[in-house]
Amino acid sequence: MILIPSPVSRSNQLDDNMIPLINIVFLMLIFFMMAGQLNSSNLIKIQPPTSQQQSVLEEHDAILLISAEGQLAVNDVLIEANKLTEHLKQKISESNDAQSFTLLVKTDATVPVTKLTTLLKQVRAAGILKVSLATQVHSARHD
Predict the structure, then answer these.
(1) Element at 105 (helix H, strand E)
(2) Which of 25, 26, 85, 96 is deepest in the core (most CB within 10 A)?
(3) Rounded-to-integer distance, Cα 66 and Cα 119, Å
(4) Can you give the pTM of this predicted structure?
Protein backbone atom coordinates (compact mmCIF):
# COMPACT_ATOMS: atom_id res chain seq x y z
CA MET A 1 0.00 0.00 0.00
CA ILE A 2 1.36 3.41 -1.03
CA LEU A 3 0.60 6.42 1.10
CA ILE A 4 -0.12 9.52 -0.89
CA PRO A 5 0.20 12.76 1.04
CA SER A 6 -2.91 14.83 1.14
CA PRO A 7 -2.71 17.99 -0.98
CA VAL A 8 -1.84 21.11 0.96
CA SER A 9 -4.38 23.84 0.51
CA ARG A 10 -3.19 26.70 -1.69
CA SER A 11 -4.69 29.41 0.54
CA ASN A 12 -2.29 28.64 3.41
CA GLN A 13 0.70 29.19 1.14
CA LEU A 14 -0.57 32.62 0.04
CA ASP A 15 -1.12 33.73 3.64
CA ASP A 16 2.39 32.68 4.59
CA ASN A 17 3.82 35.13 2.06
CA MET A 18 1.91 38.03 3.65
CA ILE A 19 3.38 37.62 7.15
CA PRO A 20 6.80 39.23 6.37
CA LEU A 21 5.05 42.14 4.66
CA ILE A 22 2.81 42.71 7.68
CA ASN A 23 5.86 42.60 9.96
CA ILE A 24 7.64 45.23 7.87
CA VAL A 25 4.59 47.51 7.86
CA PHE A 26 4.26 47.29 11.65
CA LEU A 27 7.98 47.97 12.13
CA MET A 28 7.72 51.05 9.89
CA LEU A 29 4.66 52.22 11.82
CA ILE A 30 6.49 51.90 15.14
CA PHE A 31 9.54 53.69 13.70
CA PHE A 32 7.53 56.67 12.47
CA MET A 33 5.58 56.87 15.72
CA MET A 34 8.83 57.03 17.70
CA ALA A 35 10.72 59.33 15.30
CA GLY A 36 7.93 61.78 14.53
CA GLN A 37 6.79 64.69 16.63
CA LEU A 38 3.28 65.98 16.91
CA ASN A 39 2.78 69.60 17.89
CA SER A 40 -0.55 71.09 18.65
CA SER A 41 -1.43 74.15 16.64
CA ASN A 42 -2.57 77.36 18.26
CA LEU A 43 -6.11 78.64 17.96
CA ILE A 44 -4.76 82.04 16.91
CA LYS A 45 -1.99 82.31 14.33
CA ILE A 46 0.98 84.14 15.82
CA GLN A 47 4.61 84.79 14.90
CA PRO A 48 6.51 85.08 18.21
CA PRO A 49 9.30 87.61 18.68
CA THR A 50 12.89 86.42 18.34
CA SER A 51 15.39 86.11 21.15
CA GLN A 52 19.13 85.53 21.46
CA GLN A 53 18.72 83.57 24.70
CA GLN A 54 17.59 79.96 24.78
CA SER A 55 15.89 78.28 27.70
CA VAL A 56 13.80 75.16 28.09
CA LEU A 57 10.04 75.64 27.94
CA GLU A 58 8.57 74.53 31.26
CA GLU A 59 5.08 73.28 32.00
CA HIS A 60 2.51 76.04 32.51
CA ASP A 61 -0.95 76.06 34.03
CA ALA A 62 -2.39 78.33 31.32
CA ILE A 63 -1.37 79.77 27.95
CA LEU A 64 -2.38 83.26 26.83
CA LEU A 65 -2.30 83.84 23.07
CA ILE A 66 -2.23 87.40 21.70
CA SER A 67 -2.60 87.89 17.94
CA ALA A 68 -1.43 90.82 15.85
CA GLU A 69 -5.08 91.89 15.47
CA GLY A 70 -5.57 91.97 19.24
CA GLN A 71 -7.48 88.69 19.60
CA LEU A 72 -6.97 86.91 22.94
CA ALA A 73 -7.27 83.25 23.79
CA VAL A 74 -6.62 81.44 27.07
CA ASN A 75 -6.09 77.69 26.69
CA ASP A 76 -7.64 77.77 23.21
CA VAL A 77 -10.76 79.66 24.32
CA LEU A 78 -11.33 83.04 22.68
CA ILE A 79 -12.03 85.80 25.20
CA GLU A 80 -12.51 89.55 25.12
CA ALA A 81 -9.76 91.81 26.43
CA ASN A 82 -11.99 93.35 29.12
CA LYS A 83 -12.80 89.89 30.54
CA LEU A 84 -9.20 88.68 30.76
CA THR A 85 -8.80 89.34 34.50
CA GLU A 86 -12.01 87.51 35.44
CA HIS A 87 -11.16 84.58 33.18
CA LEU A 88 -7.69 84.23 34.70
CA LYS A 89 -9.09 84.48 38.23
CA GLN A 90 -11.39 81.60 37.38
CA LYS A 91 -8.43 79.55 36.07
CA ILE A 92 -6.50 80.27 39.29
CA SER A 93 -9.44 79.14 41.43
CA GLU A 94 -9.65 75.89 39.41
CA SER A 95 -5.97 75.12 39.97
CA ASN A 96 -4.65 73.23 42.98
CA ASP A 97 -2.15 75.83 44.18
CA ALA A 98 -2.81 79.50 43.47
CA GLN A 99 0.68 80.59 44.60
CA SER A 100 2.46 78.41 42.03
CA PHE A 101 0.12 79.19 39.12
CA THR A 102 2.19 79.97 36.01
CA LEU A 103 1.12 81.63 32.77
CA LEU A 104 2.82 81.39 29.38
CA VAL A 105 2.25 84.40 27.11
CA LYS A 106 2.57 83.72 23.38
CA THR A 107 2.28 87.02 21.57
CA ASP A 108 2.79 88.08 18.00
CA ALA A 109 5.98 90.07 17.37
CA THR A 110 3.98 92.94 15.88
CA VAL A 111 1.88 93.56 19.01
CA PRO A 112 2.73 97.04 20.37
CA VAL A 113 4.48 97.14 23.74
CA THR A 114 1.75 99.42 25.14
CA LYS A 115 -0.90 96.80 24.34
CA LEU A 116 1.24 94.04 25.88
CA THR A 117 1.87 96.13 29.00
CA THR A 118 -1.86 96.74 29.43
CA LEU A 119 -2.57 93.01 29.16
CA LEU A 120 0.21 92.15 31.62
CA LYS A 121 -1.31 94.60 34.12
CA GLN A 122 -4.58 92.68 33.81
CA VAL A 123 -2.67 89.44 34.38
CA ARG A 124 -1.12 90.89 37.54
CA ALA A 125 -4.54 92.15 38.69
CA ALA A 126 -5.78 88.57 38.43
CA GLY A 127 -3.11 87.56 40.95
CA ILE A 128 -0.65 85.77 38.67
CA LEU A 129 2.95 86.39 39.69
CA LYS A 130 4.78 83.87 37.48
CA VAL A 131 4.60 84.81 33.80
CA SER A 132 6.81 83.62 30.93
CA LEU A 133 7.04 85.11 27.46
CA ALA A 134 7.45 82.62 24.61
CA THR A 135 9.97 83.58 21.92
CA GLN A 136 11.59 81.84 19.01
CA VAL A 137 15.33 81.47 18.58
CA HIS A 138 16.93 84.17 16.44
CA SER A 139 18.73 82.52 13.55
CA ALA A 140 21.71 84.42 12.24
CA ARG A 141 21.40 83.90 8.48
CA HIS A 142 23.86 85.44 6.10
CA ASP A 143 22.18 85.41 2.69
Answers:
(1) strand 102-107
(2) 85
(3) 9
(4) 0.62
* CA pseudo-torsion sign 90, 134, 37, 44: positive
Contact 74, 62 (CB under 8 A): yes
CA-to-CA separations, 136 to 8, 45, 65, 95, 133, in angstroms, rounded: 65, 14, 15, 28, 10
Give the pLDDT confidence of 97-116 residue by residue, as tens digits: 777 888 888 888 888 888 98
Domain boundaries, given as residue ranges, for the chain: 50-137
Contact (Cβ atoms closer than 8 angstroms) between residue 75 and residue 115: no
Which residues face 62 on adjacent strands?
103
How many Å apart are CA 136 and CA 32, to the nearest integer?
Answer: 26
CATH class of 50-137: alpha beta
